Amino acid sequence: MQNIPHIPVLYREVTEAFSGCEAGIVVDCTMGYGGHSSLLLEANPNLRLVGIDQDETAIRFSTERLAPFGERVEIRKGRFSAVLETIVRDYGAEQIRGVLADIGVSSLQLDEKDRGFSFESETLDMRMDPSAPLDAATVVNTYAEAELERILRDYGEVPNARKIAQVIASQRPFTSAKALAEAVRPYAPRGKKIHPATLVMQAIRIEVNDELGELNRLLDVCERACFPDAVIGIISFHSLEDRIVKQRFAQWSRNCICPSDAMRCTCGNDHAIGRPRPKKPITAQADELKENPRSRSAKLRLFEMNCHGR
C-alpha cells in the first residue's frame, strides 16, 4: 500500500465484497485518489471500471494513476447520482456488476487547505465541486439564524445547536474556516477524539454539498435500475448517512409491502430485490484502525441486488 497517497478505508473489505464480480462493470461513484478503483481492477482482471468524481484535481490524479489499466477504465465528471443514471442508460443495467460509493469529504479535499474543509484553512468554501454556486461562506454569512440552527441540529446532531447558531450570527461575517472553528470551539461538544468544532463544520459541509440528498438520489437510481446481478456497497462516516442506507436496504429486502395494519398479505409477497450481506455494517479491523484514524467511523453496508425476471 506504500504507493497510495492515502490508504482507502476498508480496502480489504471492499476488495472482498466485489470479488465475485468476475466480469462486467463496477462503478466507483466517489473515485477520489483512485485507491479503491485500483484495488478492484487489480483483483478482478476481467472487470471494467467507470470512475466518477466532481473534483477536477481528483480526476487529473486518478487519470494518471489508473492509466496502466488502459481501456478497462473510463472516468466521468459530475455528481454521482446523475452520472450513474447516464452510465446505466449507456451500458444497460445488466452490465453493471457493482456500485461503490465512499460518502463524505475525501482525504484529497481535506489536505488542500485552500478548499476550506480543514480547521486550519484560511478560506471558507467546502465545495466538493469548486464550480458549484453554493459555498460555506454563503451559508455561514447569509442564512437566517433559525436556518443555521436547523442545519446544525439536523445535519450535525449538535446538542446546543441554538446557542452555536446565535454565536455564528452575532460574530459574522466569517472569511475562513479557521476563524469559524475558533469562534464555535468554546460552545461545541467535547469529550470525543475529534476537534470540538467537527460536528459544526460537518453540518455546514453537508448543506453546501447536499450530501444527504445526493445519497438518497444515488439509492433512487439503483432502485430504478434494479440491477439483475450487482453488489451495492456504501461506505458512510456518520449516523445520518448510515441510517439512510440501512433503511433503504431494509426496504429493498422486504417481500411484503402491505400496510402494517393489513389483516393478510395481498401484495404477492415477492417484492424483495435482494438482500443485505451481511445485515450489520462492516467496520475496520484493528490494524487498519491503528494505521488510518479516518477509518474509525467508517461503516460499509452491502446489498446483493438480484432483479432477474423483473
From the structure above, extract its key features.
alpha/beta, 7-stranded mixed beta sheet, 310 residues, 7 strands
Written account of the structure:
- It is a single chain.
- Helices cover 41% and strands 13% of the residues.
- By secondary structure, the protein is α/β, with parallel strands linked by helices.
- Strands 3-2-1-4-5-7-6 form a seven-stranded mixed beta sheet, sandwiched between helices.
Q: How large is the radius of gyration?
A: 20 Å
| Cα distance spanning the termini | 41 Å
Q: Give the CA-based shape.
A: globular
* Series of H and E elements: HEHEHEHEHHHHHHHEHEHE
Largest beta-sheet details:
7 strands, mixed
- Mean pLDDT comes to 90
Q: What is the total tally of β strands?
A: 7
* Percentage of residues assigned to helices: 40-55%
Beta-strand residue percentage: 5-15%
Helical/strand content category: alpha/beta
Q: Helix count, per DSSP?
A: 13
Condensed summary:
By secondary structure, this protein is an alpha/beta fold. The chain has 13 helices and 7 strands.
What's the layout of helices and strands?
Layout: H1 11-17, E1 24-28, H2 35-43, E2 47-53, H3 56-65, E3 73-77, H4 80-91, E4 96-102, H5 107-111, H6 136-142, H7 145-156, H8 161-171, H9 177-184, H10 198-209, H11 211-225, E5 230-236, H12 239-252, E6 274-276, H13 286-291, E7 299-305
Parallel strand pairs: 1-2, 1-4, 2-3, 4-5
Antiparallel strand pairs: 5-7, 6-7
Helix pairs in contact: 4-11, 7-8, 7-10, 11-12
